[in-house]
Design brief:
The chain is an alpha+beta fold. It has one domain (4-127): 2-Layer Sandwich (Fructose-1,6-Bisphosphatase, Chain A, domain 1), CATH 3.30.540. Helix content is 33%, strand content 33%. It has three helices and eight strands, in the order αββαβββαβββ. It has a six-stranded mixed beta sheet. Strands 1-2 form a two-stranded antiparallel ribbon. A hairpin with a 4-residue loop joins strand 7 and strand 8. Helix 1 (4-23) packs antiparallel against helix 2. The radius of gyration is 15 Å and the shape is globular.
């Protein structure tokens, strides 16, 4: 049986994946965040959902994310999320290699991970000690 954190991470990844898939192959505006990197409304919408869901249940945990930066609460637990891993393939539609990815670390050690490869219809879930 998976931990509550792992099951909740799976729920977050599934919901965020539905958000991202709703934007796939649509004409999206690029928002340049640096000279070599941009994000889209899909990144922002997925990030907003992820942040809201984490804050609803794990208010004391740190959160690091690709779009939302870092929130350090001084906890030994840190959520790490990428709201859209593969923004360019998702944005251009050139491939189905994009996903929503998350992990929970205790200190510097990952203890669970989830990847919802929504473009490919694949879902991966792992937890330390669960096989």
């Amino acid at each position: 049986m998976f931990s509550d954190e792992t099951l909740y991470a799976a729920e977050i990844a599934k919901k965020a994946g539905k958000v991202v898939l709703g934007f796939h192959k649509r004409r999206l505006k690029r928002n340049w965040t640096s000279r070599h990197y941009f994000k889209t409304d899909a990144d922002d919408a997925s990030e907003k959902l992820i942040q809201r869901m984490i804050r609803a249940r794990y208010t004391d945990y740190n959160v690091w994310s690709g779009e939302g930066g870092r929130s350090d609460k001084g906890s030994s637990y840190t959520w790490v999320w990428d709201a859209v891993d593969g923004t360019i393939p998702m944005y251009t539609g050139i491939s189905d290699h994009f996903s929503v990815c998350g992990a929970l670390c205790e200190g510097k050690r990952p203890i669970l991970g989830v990847a919802n490869a929504v473009g490919r219809g694949e879902f991966y879930l792992a937890e330390v000690g669960k096989g």
